[in-house]
Model the fold of this input.
Amino acid sequence: MTINKTSVKQVENTIYRKEQVTCDNIELIGQYDVIVVGGGPAGVAAAETTARQGLKTLIIEKNGFLGGQAVGGLSGTICGLYLTNEEWTSKNGPKQIVFGFAEKFRQRLLRNGGLSEPQLYGNTYVDAHDPFVWKYSAEELVIEAGAEILYHTVVTNVMLEDREIKAVVVNTADGYGLIKADYFIDTSGDAVLVASSGGEFRMGQNGVVQNPSLIFMINGVDDEKFWNHFGENTICNDDFSEKIKEAEKKFGVSLPRKKIWIFKCPNKGQLYINATSVSKNNGNCLNCVKAKERTYAEIAARKQALAYFKLLKEYVPGCENSYITVTGSEVGVRQTRSIVARKTLLNRDVENCVKLEDGIAKSSWPIELHRGEKPKLFWLQNDYYEIPFGTMVPASLDNVLVAGRCIDAEHEALASSRVTAQCFSEGHAAGIAMMLSKKSGTKVYDIDGKDVRKALKEDGADL
Done:
């Protein structure tokens, strides 16, 4: 097999030609202490933490911006910051339980004017963010900490020796290159490093994964008129669900979700619409690591978004003069690969609000399964569970950690732990663990989660 080398040879004054080399001779283009693969919330937290702790850090991102699904998928909200409880939310307002890097990022968004006030979401609260402000706030924090960013770069393979990744093979518009590091953090969302190294993973529950969706933003909304009609809660009420059913018949279109969520953006006259849900024509789930299925999801989701927008414009007070400003630049993926790790976050751990000695992140977010007309919501009540450090430690690798939606968690447990605040916390924990490994000379696989928890508390996490 041959591949394109990253360097080029000048043939004539204005003509260049890429040279062909074997895979064993890919050009080395960088060497670091830590490489973070994926620039979503978990990756941003991990890169900022390792760089701030003095490790030479590179974050590799396939897009031209940081944010992952929070920005590219236009998820639009920081979920998971607040306690869930039916009794007090409507009376006393939000009670924040997640701090550490999540709070650092929240404060930066506030400083840069890109975060809303907390909004009622069922039995808890969320904060909505501006996608552009998210992008440059993340860049500020990562660069200030001393990390480097490499955009428009895709990891295509790894170089493995025994139980350690020694380097990643990357592809850019200029060809292939090799980047070495002592440590790696997989925040790709799809467990790219673990899968590429031959590590074991699961795909949902016996292959069944949550449906993807496409969130869109509308402008030109009369805020007062809309919210007086829609109500305080960002989850639509039963009367609104009936309007969706009426519109589906009237327009002759498919509106698969009858329970939708609408969030107030930081800027006036803007709304985030979380309404679409995409599956195959036969109703089966889409596996978004498969290019054909993800392509189908992108096309089908845009059609759905237009249909839901037509409903809003024609049926909902305040939306008469509205228009779609932007959709996510990619369909929002909720679940693909989950690694096999030292520990598994179990469904019952979430339901029973289990606390652990190696707990590195709190979560009170509901189990939120997106399939069918109405997403399943299992609400916790005035309590939280903790995500164990072991869920981030691949069983097959000694110098790699995973953070974000591809940690080791059962299907329903992942539906709670995959949201933004918890991804921030997991990335923070991964960065701290790498620092502990570097200082002690202990393999990452052998790091004690209790030590990570202690260091996180010293670094601002409230555990």
Remarks:
- Residues 1-7 have pLDDT under 50 and may be disordered.
- The longest helix spans residues 291-315.
